[in-house]
Specification:
The structure holds two protein chains of two kinds. Chain A is an all-alpha fold. Chain A contains seven helices and no strands. Chain A is about 85% helix and about 0% strand. Chain A is elongated and about 90 Å long. Classes of the chains: A mainly alpha, B alpha+beta.
Chain lengths: ~200, ~100
């Protein structure tokens, strides 16, 4: 009788543990790894396209806008799909915060990039520098507020952008695109792996 | 000879489905009805009756909300529920300790 009671107690503790872990896993996962991979690809494709559009000046801005809309939509789809498993669907919250945070920053980036494209004496290579400086600023803010690894990415991106602007301006878009893209995709893969192991 | 164990487990919690509900609510501040239903593999009616019992005991609070014009039932654990769940856990541990 006592043995049965003990067995039942052990089973109940196991059930509690399992459910608590499963719920916490669902709360914490909104597809962050995949989102990071999407924006890593955004960097690669963006820079590749920029190389093609550089001779056409302002078209670079249009290219980045179109690409950002595509990446933003992919982010929305990923968030929607992952938050389906959450205890309370926080999908709207994530998207709202994402848009409220990044839209003003991206507007700033595009405005500055447009100015650069319109000023004939300024090289169009500065466009990618400005965009990546703005993105790095976003990462720095998120890093200071929430995640340390994003802070490293932001710091690295910020310093890297300035170094490229000073010493490797002509190849800066390629260098930064590859560094940012690789950094984001690697971070995404690490996040996905960590989540699978939880 | 085995020692008799006189530890009373709270009957409102000591039932697989209700224990599951309370465990999930311990992990998440607020939980949707459908999440509980899917996680615990219960039917609407079955889950509703368990939730009503827990609500009657004042262990949980249930509120209905409209999100994008769709009704959502949200459950939240009360302080009393949290306390009862912690006591329940302690009692489970006591049972295991007393027999090892």
């Amino acid at each position: 009788m006592n043995e049965e009671k003990k067995q039942e107690a052990l089973e109940n503790i196991e059930l509690i543990k399992e459910l608590v872990l499963q719920t916490k896993k669902h709360i914490g996962h909104y597809g962050g790894g995949w989102i990071s991979i999407i924006w890593g690809l955004f960097c690669f494709v963006g820079v590749a396209g920029q190389r093609l559009f550089i001779p056409h000046g302002p078209l670079i801005g249009v290219w980045w806008v179109v690409l950002a809309v595509v990446a933003g939509f992919a982010t929305y789809l990923v968030t929607r799909s992952f938050t389906k498993n959450q205890p309370v669907r926080a999908q709207q919250d994530y998207m709202r915060y994402f848009l409220r945070f990044w839209i003003p920053l991206m507007l700033l980036g595009y405005t500055l990039a447009t100015f650069i494209a319109l000023i004939p004496s300024l090289s169009n290579h500065y466009i990618s520098i400005v965009i990546l400086l703005v993105v790095s600023t976003g990462y720095l803010i998120i890093g200071f507020l929430f995640y340390r690894w994003i802070l490293y990415l932001g710091t690295f991106g910020y310093i890297g952008s300035i170094i490229c602007a000073i010493y490797f301006l002509e190849y800066s878009d390629m260098i930064l695109g590859i560094l940012f893209g690789t950094g984001l995709i690697t971070a995404g893969l690490v996040i996905n792996k960590q989540w699978k192991n939880t | 000879m085995e020692e008799h164990i006189a530890i009373n487990l709270n009957t409102a919690i000591h039932q697989k489905a209700r224990l599951g509900i309370m465990s999930i609510l311990m992990a998440s501040n607020e939980v949707e009805f459908n999440y509980l239903k899917d996680s615990l593999k219960l039917t609407d009616g079955n889950l509703s009756s368990h939730l009503s019992l827990l609500e009657k005991e004042k262990f949980i609070k249930i509120k209905k909300k409209f999100i994008k014009k769709k009704p959502k039932t949200l459950c939240r654990m009360t302080d009393k529920g949290r306390q009862a769940f912690e006591e329940y856990l302690e009692n489970l541990e006591k049972i295991i300790r007393s027999m090892s």
